[in-house]
Structure formats: C-alpha cells, structure tokens
Amino acid sequence: MIKVSGLTKEFLQGQEKTEVLKGIDLNIEEGEFVAIMGPSGSGKSTLLQLLGGLDVPTKGDIQINDKFLNRMKEKERTIFRRKNLGFVFQNYQLLPTLTVEENIAFPLHADGKVTNERIKMIHELIQSVGLAGLNRKRANLLSGGQQQRVAIARGLVNNPTVLLADEPTGNLDRARAEEILGLFLKFHRENKQTIVMVTHDIFAAGFADRIILFKDGVVDQVISRKDGDYAKYLANFMA
C-alpha cells in the first residue's frame, strides 16, 4: 500500500540546512492501522505531510498503490490526494457556519461528485460516526468530540485509499479521545481502512496494529501487536 524509500527532507533556515528526515525506509500494508510516535522535532508530522502530498521530499520515493507521489507534478499530486487520501486534523478544520452535512460534503464539490448516491453515503457516515439527527446543525455549535466526528466522516467521504490523522485526539479529554479512537478502530476493522496516525499519546497509539517510534529523523523502533511484548511495552510506557 505505502512504500517509503530513502526519504530525506531538508529545510533551509537562513543559510543553514536542517535535515528533519534522514533516509527513512518504511512499508505500510493495505488495511493496516499504524501509529507514528516521537518527541517534538523528530520528523513524524513532516512524514505525514509528505505521505499526504502536501510537501515533497528532498530525496527518496513515496509510493502509494504503486504510484510515485513525489514524482508527480503539483496538479497531478493535488488530484491524486483528492481521490486517494483522507485527512483528519487535530484542530478539526471545519467551516464553522456550515452544517454537519455540508462540512462532510465539502471535499466532493471539487470533483462535482455530490450525487444522490454520495448524499446517501454522507447520511450513512453521519450515522456511523454517531451524529444521527445533527445533519443540519452548524459546526460551531458542536462539542469538540462531535466536531472531530464530523472531521472523520469528511476524511472518509471520498472512500480514500489511506486515511491520514494528525494528532486527532490532541484536543480531547480521555473519554472523548477513546470514543474517537473507537471510531478509527471500527472503520479499520469493518472496512479494512488503512490508517496512518501521528500521535504523542501512547494510549492512542495502543489502538494501532503497529507503533513506529521516531527519533532525530530516523525510525528508532517498531513495535507490532503480533509481538509478544506489545502489551508489556505499552504498560511500561504508560506507567
């Protein structure tokens, strides 16, 4: 599904180059739920931006479904992103004066896809994320947890190949965070949705199949649910 090879990203600060990613190699399987963790400045959010086609690497390749994202021109990358990738952000990034239904439908307007079939899908997503009856409620009147549910539905409305989530529970208390993570797990298990989630919270990361730990721009450690010490590792980390 996702293959990252020799991925390097440098930023120019004045006359100095800062290497944020240092030759990352990474594979993510179709239908896998992966959490990326690491301290601030470790490169995890930069990786997510590159996977989302929001930026291009200095060196290396990013393949999603055998398509080289980094070799596309900007317009090609925009179209690919729109058709294949879904995004969920920490700050929701909803349009406050639009309704729940209008916010979820927003990504469809770019491709002229607001058909009766798509409207039906929007209504099903609203049900799936637990917002039944709130279709016509404005986003600015929702709680934080409800807004994040709208953001998840919006991220899924294009039936994306990959759902990318950047600190999706960062603004929520533990109870609301657990609800949101339960939704990710639901779509992951029921629809085989591939999810890549950046998080600083080991509780959130514990919902994933694999945790990839970043440190100083490289992959420091990978812990898989298939490993016998997965639960022990989480318990020690949270202690």
What does this structure look like?
One of its GO terms (cellular component) is membrane protein complex. Keywords: ATP-binding, Nucleotide-binding, Transport. Pfam families: ABC_tran. With 239 residues, the chain is an alpha/beta fold. It has a single domain, classed as P-loop containing nucleotide triphosphate hydrolases (Rossmann fold, 3-Layer(aba) Sandwich). It is 36% helix and 28% strand. The protein is built from eight helices and ten strands. It has helices at residues 44-51, 74-84, 100-109, 116-128, 144-156, 174-191, 202-205, 230-238, and strands at 2-13, 16-28, 33-37, 59-64, 67-68, 85-89, 162-166, 194-198, 210-215, 218-224. Strands 6-7-8-3-9-10 form a six-stranded mixed sheet. A hairpin with a 2-residue loop joins strand 1 and strand 2 (16-28). The longest helix is centred in the C-terminal third of the chain and has 18 residues, at 174-191. It is globular, with a radius of gyration of 18 Å.
Summarize the structure.
Belongs to the ABC transporter superfamily. With 239 residues, this protein is α/β, with parallel strands linked by helices.
Topology (elements, then pairings):
Layout: E1 2-13, E2 16-28, E3 33-37, H1 44-51, E4 59-64, E5 67-68, H2 74-84, E6 85-89, H3 100-109, H4 116-128, H5 144-156, E7 162-166, H6 174-191, E8 194-198, H7 202-205, E9 210-215, E10 218-224, H8 230-238
Parallel strand pairs: 3-8, 3-9, 6-7, 7-8
Antiparallel strand pairs: 1-2, 1-4, 4-5, 9-10
Helix pairs in contact: 3-4, 3-5, 4-5, 5-6
